[in-house]
């Protein structure tokens, strides 16, 4: 079902021919047009959309989803799926806040949370790569387990953060730009190099594209899978840290359904469910579609019930248009 | 200690569970030697090579390169020891570019530790040019024909500057022209003192390019001979373990009245194909790779859309827009990709065998177990499929036996027209002979067969008439009663047809 | 208390009347109490406090309290209650996720001869329960409206963050809107929006959008303390925490924290530990065969800077 | 990732060798032992488990999940996934109750709900089979859309059912056995025959096992996919009807996460995520594991936070044991 490698969507056409950016633009035309069209429509229909504060907070809003979606994108490219990101984010937030309240230096708190995410991801990746249990089941299980552990440890209660510096990570500004945007930009650059300019990155694409061939070419596919799930765990943990900073507290109950939004962002941005295909830039665009859509519907005062309907239709519609475009290229 | 051998594999043992696949096998190869590795399906050839290539580990035994014992635990180890591998199954990542596939697992790095894109593309370009492959290095693999992909794999392996190159059935999906390209490369490598291990089921290739030949049977080493001293018959009897007369022993089928007429058939690839098929004949389809033979079959079977043209069977015009309709019209297709298109590998032989005739024993929510069992045993015996039981998974069978399952599956549906697309690809001599025999028997029973094959001897020896295709057109139908037939003549039509 | 809970009826209308008659401790406990409790959502602070109230009210080590969390799932609540009966609880206390849907469960309890106390949320068929101990959610909406109006000097623009698919929350929203409409003509409700989940991570983005959509915003009503957390974070982030007044329902420790920090005007407090205590006390009476009050309305109070302590 | 065809798990080993039931038992040994072990442990540690009322209510409780899991099993066997079942069940419940309250005969109400489910499934199946959009995305979108439509139509509020006969479907007993159990039994028999005794059933297995080969064998794989999704939609709708009858009301907000429990039941029962493999009987066993586990944890008074942890561990553990067993068979 739905097994095709879209010939024009490989993220890998770098090198050799001219402009990488142009290629990327061409490949992601559909989502980019979608997000621009949404923006134009909202700028016309509302006078509150095209306002710098609104746009900036839209960016800030999207950051948590983008961070998680980066991890999901890498996992999807590698042929997997990760449903544990929401629980991981919640747990990481709790960890950071508790440590920060205990007076530890912020760097230590955040690193500890990241290590937690990495270990969770490592566990997922280890089980997935060393058995034939599908990633869906493994990460669904860890999702439930980590959620439970979070509740057990906290007694279900949020922890208010008393460290004001920490909160700035989520709520602060730098040169008028929200801090989380810098976090995302930094992560994007690092990941971009990892995915596009290192052997490991190529191996992720290869493992997702054809694991057998990758193995025959000497790629240690198990290690690649483990490292990708580790990345996803770490990114989810980072998202949890940013979220906790925005909420001024570590909350064990947040993050439910985060994987859903992140998957939607990845897929809207052209990442394939069959592995081997996807770009981080596309994911940013996908997350922006979701962000602009939610923001716009609120500004347009669309009834909350109808928002569900619109959101579902937009996801399906966008993916369908992308499919049509690819089907046409295929025919040519 | 310098050795006269580039490669020695000594006393290799290997079992998968309780299945002993290699049993004390040793081979040694000198620099510049081309060694054929022959044996029936499942003899253990690929397994032996995968041990050398670092994909499997031997249970026992040692490997020496240039006289020095080496440990090969990973693909990387193999590569470092100068071993490169063209796998039996095409193994590339379709969503990645040619250059990226070329350097997968051995990406060149810049000083900063990032991938050196420029070097990657430059080197790939050079390797492609050497093989005469005219494709941009940043093209994705997706959409390339199997033959092209195979050529790329060959270019990739040759490019590694290896001491030992393993070629596991490199020509299985190549036609003559490409095979010749490959042989030219083999000669060049030989001059560079590279040792080559060449696995193929095509006997004539063995004699053409190989210096020596090692035969395996049931995982045991049977013997090594110089090709100059060996005969075809000798090798075959070594492989099958008994005297063997003739592969092409069957008398040629002669057609009766016209059964099927194809008039002006056009599809996305096929252009204006017209031919008649007689009752009980074997119509061979020859042509270069990409000539559109498979596409003709796909159109006739309702998988590719027919844009224009008519198909008549037994004087009645039939409309074919889906495989279901084709089957109803009496057409059966044994596809070229056995595993991908022909079989449910995760299901039992029984399920596969009976798939086309479910109606005969399942009706009104009842399964007539007796009838089902009868059907299964009929075809089990008819084709002498070697298996543990009918409940064995098809995926566990050797290639030849898998092919027999596919053919039986279709025979059960009692087709009038049986299309066989590359029916003997990757199948050992014993199984080949059985399939030829089967074709002959079927045509005697009045089944008309269309046989698509890239092996010219197979075409020439089994066909009643030979249709030659070139670039989507059917350029000539050769009739032995009228025309002279030889490999050269067929090739000239296959090539010239395209020049018109 | 709105986590994932839902009720259709709020039969008691008078706010803050009729405190439960303090249970007389003089019952002669021949039989040990084994009370089974089913709550909609133990990850909501409110229910955790109810549970703690219940634990404190236990009188003897022989008595036991079994609490089950139906995680917002009506189906699971029914399953949980049946499990409680099957393990021999002699009183069931439940906070229905849905007042209608719980009837089948109540009938099962009746058949098994186990008396039921409905707490926090009433049931549609009061004849099936021995006692109903509720606080008035609509009243909490009224209180919030009053508190907000006072903070805004009876004038301004407000928005609501709601969870209308859950009926307790629906009642609060209704109370709030009714009160504003009836008594504060100068306060305008600009927009209300449902959260997908009644947690801070889902309420925050909505508040951010409200802030941008309405630069002249003066107040916000949120249906529980966790959603208030999201709204407050958004306001702090936008630097508007001083300009926009927040009111909420629950009066949980989290909410009290906001009030102390000056980030929230008021939270309409139900008395969670009181609900818990009263429930257990009623259960003791039932076990002892004493008469219990059919309807207990727990006092609601509004917690603000003056009484947060 | 996790791409293997377990050689011993094909559901199609009919024909040739003797006893189907014995084969089935052998294939599902791990989950059957799991459920029995759980039962024995609970019978020993509690004196409330092995009591007919408890066992009967356990059965009644599992029915909704089993019905949905039947649909999910068929979809998984066919190589797909269906996330829209929860929303579908909620909507079907609302439809039935509203029609019943309007005075229509019960049969008409229920049939209307089933037709609704079938249409939703048909839509899913149509899009999935006629495009390359992955089932995950298509059914995620319809999940959101139908949830929204349900809220819009009902204003988010439940509708109490006034038809007492209807409620009996969920809460009644027949010869001492809960009515929903009869519904499940009936559905099981029908589905068993469809999946095992018809050409269509085999085509479902074939399509999931190797869609390409099925196409080459003359199977209209698109039609097969559409019909399977239709089945899943109808079964979800039926589950929604039973649930509404148990709750005496149609509720637009129920059913979230139902797909998760159903997938867990299917997978615990040996259904493969890669398609082509699975049995309905296995799914019943899988659902019982989940049911007994939840019941048991309640009886053992395990803290609700810890219940998450235990549930996640049991799912992962059971799947892991199954994997070990299969890996061993493979080696032999
Ligand atoms: N991974 C594996 N697990 C179990 N059995 C295997 C595995 N790989 C190969 N075998 C078995 O080992 C035997 C030898 O297989 P191998 O692929 O080496 O044969 P071959 O000589 O290359 O045959 P062919 O000509 O068909 O390629 C076969 O019986 C095969 O079924
Ligand atoms: N999926 C496809 N999409 C587009 N073009 C295709 C596709 N498959 C095949 N072609 C093109 O159709 C032509 C004929 O294909 P094909 O290689 O099947 O011919 P053939 O004569 O059967 O050769 P072979 O020896 O490989 O069977 C080629 O030009 C090929 O590139
Ligand atoms: Mg081989
Ligand atoms: Mg072909």
What Rg of chain C, in angstroms, do the CA atoms define?
20 Å
End-to-end CA span of chain A: 23 Å
Q: Which regions of chain A are unreliable across 5 or more consecutive residues at pLDDT < 50?
A: 1-18
Helix/strand-derived category of chain A reads mainly alpha
Distance between the termini of chain C: 21 Å
Q: Most extensive chain contact? A: A-D, 59 and 59 residues
Oligomeric state as shown: heterotetramer
Which regions of chain C are unreliable across 5 or more consecutive residues at pLDDT < 50? 1-29
Could you estimate the helical fraction of the residues of chain C in percent?
Answer: 25-40%
Q: So what's the overall shape of chain C?
A: elongated
**Could you name the CATH topology of chain A?**
ABC transporter involved in vitamin B12 uptake, BtuC
Keywords (chains A, D): Cell membrane, Membrane, Transmembrane, Transmembrane helix
Subcellular location (chains A, D): Cell membrane
Main location (chains A, D): membrane
InterPro entries (chains A, D): ABC_transp_permease
Can you offer a commentary on this structure?
The complex is a heterotetramer, with two copies of chain A (332 residues), one copy of chain B (500 residues) and one copy of chain C (309 residues). Chain A has a single domain (34-43, 62-331), classed as ABC transporter involved in vitamin B12 uptake, BtuC. Chain A is 73% helix and 2% strand. Chain A has helices spanning 20-27, 29-45, 52-77, 85-101, 106-130, 135-154, 164-171, 179-197, 199-209, 211-216, 221-247, 258-268, 280-299, 304-331; strands spanning 159-160, 173-174, 177-178, 249-250. A two-stranded antiparallel sheet of chain A has the order 1-4. In chain A, helix 5 runs antiparallel to helix 6 (135-154). Chain A is globular, with a radius of gyration of 20 Å. The two termini of chain A are 23 Å apart. Chain B is an alpha/beta fold and 500 residues long. Chain B folds into two domains: 7-92 and 141-243, Rossmann fold, CATH 3.40.50; 258-499, 3-Layer(aba) Sandwich (Rossmann fold), CATH 3.40.50. Helices cover 34% and strands 24% of the residues of chain B. Chain B contains 18 helices and 22 strands. Chain B has helices at 45-52, 75-80, 98-102, 117-131, 146-158, 176-191, 203-209, 232-240, 293-300, 323-328, 338-342, 349-353, 358-361, 369-382, 399-411, 429-444, 456-462, 487-499, and strands at residues 7-16, 19-29, 34-38, 60-65, 68-70, 83-86, 164-168, 195-199, 212-217, 220-226, 258-266, 273-278, 282-287, 308-313, 316-318, 331-334, 362-363, 366-367, 417-421, 448-452, 465-470, 473-478. In chain B, helix 6 (176-191) links the parallel strand 7 and strand 8. In chain B, helix 4 crosses helix 5 (146-158) and helix 5 runs parallel beside helix 6 (176-191). The radius of gyration of chain B is 24 Å and the shape is globular. The model of chain B has no long low-confidence stretch (mean pLDDT 86). With 309 residues, chain C is of the alpha/beta class. Helices cover 39% and strands 20% of the residues of chain C. Chain C has a six-stranded parallel β-sheet with strand order 2-1-3-4-5-11, sandwiched between helices. In chain C, helix 1 (45-57) crosses helix 9 and helix 4 (137-151) crosses helix 5 (167-183). Chain C starts with 33 loop residues before the first strand and ends in a 5-residue tail after the last strand. Chains in contact: A-B, A-C, A-D, B-D, C-D. The interface between B and D is large, with 44 and 34 residues. Bound molecules: adenosine-5'-triphosphate (ATP) (2 copies) and magnesium ion (2 copies). Chains A, D: Its main location: membrane. Chains A, D: Keywords: Cell membrane, Membrane, Transmembrane, Transmembrane helix. Chains A, D: This is ABC transporter permease. Chains A, D: It is a multi-pass membrane protein. Chains A, D: It holds the Pfam family BPD_transp_2.
């Amino acid at each position: 079902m739905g097994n095709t490698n879209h010939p024009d969507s490989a993220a890998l056409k770098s090198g050799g021919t001219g402009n990488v950016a142009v290629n990327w633009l061409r490949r992601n035309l559909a989502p980019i047009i979608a997000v621009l069209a949404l923006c134009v429509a909202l700028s016309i229909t509302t006078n509150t959309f095209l306002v710098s504060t609104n746009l900036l907070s839209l960016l800030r809003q999207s950051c948590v989803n983008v961070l998680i979606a980066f991890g999901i994108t890498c996992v999807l490219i590698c042929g997997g799926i990760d449903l544990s990101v929401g629980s991981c984010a919640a747990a990481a937030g709790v960890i950071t806040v508790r440590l920060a309240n205990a007076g530890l230096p912020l760097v230590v708190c955040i690193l500890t949370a990241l290590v937690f995410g990495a270990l969770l991801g490592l566990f997922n990746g280890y089980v997935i790569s060393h058995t034939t249990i599908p990633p869906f089941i493994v990460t669904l299980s860890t999702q439930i387990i980590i959620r439970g552990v979070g509740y057990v440890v906290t007694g279900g209660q949020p922890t208010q953060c008393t460290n004001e510096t920490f909160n700035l990570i989520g709520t602060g500004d730098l040169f008028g730009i929200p801090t989380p945007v810098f976090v995302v930009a930094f992560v994007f650059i690092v990941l971009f190099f990892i995915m596009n300019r290192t052997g490991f990155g190529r191996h992720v694409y290869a493992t997702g594209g054809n694991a057998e061939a990758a193995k025959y070419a000497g790629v240690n596919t198990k290690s690649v899978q483990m490292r990708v799930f580790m990345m996803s765990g770490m990114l989810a943990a980072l998202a949890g840290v940013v979220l906790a900073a925005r909420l001024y507290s570590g909350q064990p109950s947040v993050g439910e359904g985060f994987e859903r939004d992140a998957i939607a962002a990845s897929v809207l941005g052209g990442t394939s469910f069959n592995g081997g295909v996807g770009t981080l830039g596309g994911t940013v665009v996908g997350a922006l579609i979701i962000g602009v859509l939610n923001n716009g519907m609120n500004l347009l005062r669309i009834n909350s019930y109808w928002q569900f309907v619109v959101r579902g239709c937009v996801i399906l519609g966008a993916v369908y248009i992308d499919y049509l475009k690819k089907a046409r290229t295929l025919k040519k | 200690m310098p050795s006269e051998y580039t490669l020695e594999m000594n006393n290799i043992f290997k079992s998968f569970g309780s299945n002993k696949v290699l049993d004390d096998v040793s081979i040694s190869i000198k620099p510049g030697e081309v060694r054929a590795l022959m044996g029936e399906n499942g003899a253990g050839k690929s397994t032996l090579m995968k041990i050398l290539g670092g994909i499997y580990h031997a249970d026992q035994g040692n490997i020496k390169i240039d006289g020095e014992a080496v440990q090969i635990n990973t693909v990387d180890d193999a590569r470092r020891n100068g071993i490169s591998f063209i796998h039996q199954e095409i193994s590339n990542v379709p969503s990645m570019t040619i250059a990226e596939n070329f350097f997968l697992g051995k990406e060149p790095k810049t000083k900063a530790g990032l991938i050196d894109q420029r070097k990657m593309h430059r080197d790939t370009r050079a390797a492609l040019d050497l093989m005469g492959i005219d494709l941009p290095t940043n093209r994705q693999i997706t959409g390339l024909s199997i033959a092209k992909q195979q050529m790329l794999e060959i270019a990739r392996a040759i490019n590694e500057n290896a001491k030992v190159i393993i070629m596991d059935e490199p020509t299985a999906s190549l036609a003559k022209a490409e095979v010749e390209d490959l042989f030219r490369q083999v000669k060049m490598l030989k001059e560079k003192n590279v040792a080559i291990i060449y696995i193929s089921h095509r006997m004539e290739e063995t004699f053409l390019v190989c210096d020596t030949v090692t035969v395996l049977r049931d995982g045991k080493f049977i013997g090594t001979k110089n090709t100059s001293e060996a005969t075809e018959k000798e090798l075959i009897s070594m492989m099958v373990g008994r005297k063997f007369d003739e592969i092409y022993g069957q008398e040629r089928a002669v057609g009766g009245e016209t059964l099927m007429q194809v008039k002006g058939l056009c599809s996305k690839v096929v252009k204006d194909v017209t031919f008649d098929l007689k009752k009980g004949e074997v119509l061979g389809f020859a042509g270069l790779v990409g000539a559109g033979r498979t596409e003709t079959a796909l159109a006739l079977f309702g998988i590719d859309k027919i844009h224009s043209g008519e198909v008549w069977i037994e004087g009645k015009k039939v409309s074919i827009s889906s495989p279901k309709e084709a089957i109803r019209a009496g057409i059966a297709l044994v596809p070229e990709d056995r595993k991908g298109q022909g079989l449910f590998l995760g299901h039992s032989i029984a399920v596969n065998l009976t798939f086309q005739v479910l109606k005969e024993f399942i009706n009104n929510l009842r399964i007539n177990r007796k009838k089902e069992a009868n059907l299964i045993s009929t075809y089990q015996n008819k084709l002498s499929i070697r298996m543990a039981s009918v409940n064995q998974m098809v995926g566990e069978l050797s290639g030849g036996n898998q092919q027999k399952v596919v053919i039986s599956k279709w025979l059960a549906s009692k087709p009038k027209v049986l299309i066989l697309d590359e029916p003997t690809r990757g199948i050992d001599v014993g199984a080949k002979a059985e399939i030829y025999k089967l074709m002959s028997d079927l045509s005697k029973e009045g089944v008309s067969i269309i046989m698509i094959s890239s092996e010219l001897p197979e075409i020439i020896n089994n066909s009643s008439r030979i249709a030659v295709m070139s670039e989507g057109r059917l350029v000539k139908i050769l009739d032995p009663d009228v025309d002279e037939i030889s490999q050269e003549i067929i090739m000239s039509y296959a090539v010239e047809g395209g020049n018109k | 208390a709105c986590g994932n809970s839902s009720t259709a009826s709020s039969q008691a209308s008078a706010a803050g009347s009729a405190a439960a008659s303090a249970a007389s401790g003089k019952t002669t406990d021949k039989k040990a109490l084994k009370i089974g409790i089913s709550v909609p959502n133990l990850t909501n602070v409110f229910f955790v406090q109810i549970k703690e109230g219940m634990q404190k009210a236990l009188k003897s080590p022989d008595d036991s309290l079994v609490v089950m969390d139906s995680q917002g799932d009506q189906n699971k609540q029914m399953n949980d209650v049946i499990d409680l009966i099957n393990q021999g609880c002699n009183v069931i206390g439940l906070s229905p996720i849905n007042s209608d849907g719980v009837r089948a469960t109540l009938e099962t309890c009746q058949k098994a001869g186990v008396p039921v106390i409905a707490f926090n949320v009433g049931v549609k068929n009061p004849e099936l329960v021995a006692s109903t101990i509720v606080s008035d959610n609509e009243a909490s909406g009224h209180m919030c409206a009053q508190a907000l109006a006072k903070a805004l000097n009876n004038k301004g623009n407000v928005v609501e963050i709601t969870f209308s698919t859950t009926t307790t929350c629906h009642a609060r929203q209704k109370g709030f809107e009714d009160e504003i409409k009836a008594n504060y003509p100068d306060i305008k409700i600009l927009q209300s929006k449902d959260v997908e989940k009644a947690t801070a991570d889902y309420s925050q983005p909505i508040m951010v959008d409200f802030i941008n959509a309405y630069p002249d915003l003066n107040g916000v009503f949120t249906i529980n303390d966790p959603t208030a957390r999201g709204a407050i974070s958004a306001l702090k982030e936008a630097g508007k925490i001083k300009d926009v007044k927040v009111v909420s329902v629950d009066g949980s420790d989290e909410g009290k924290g906001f009030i102390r920090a000056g980030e929230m005007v008021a939270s309409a407090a139900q008395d969670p530990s009181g609900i818990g205590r009263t429930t257990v006390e009623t259960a003791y009476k039932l076990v002892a065969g004493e008469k219990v009050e059919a309807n207990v309305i727990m006092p609601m109070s509004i917690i603000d800077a003056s009484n947060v302590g």
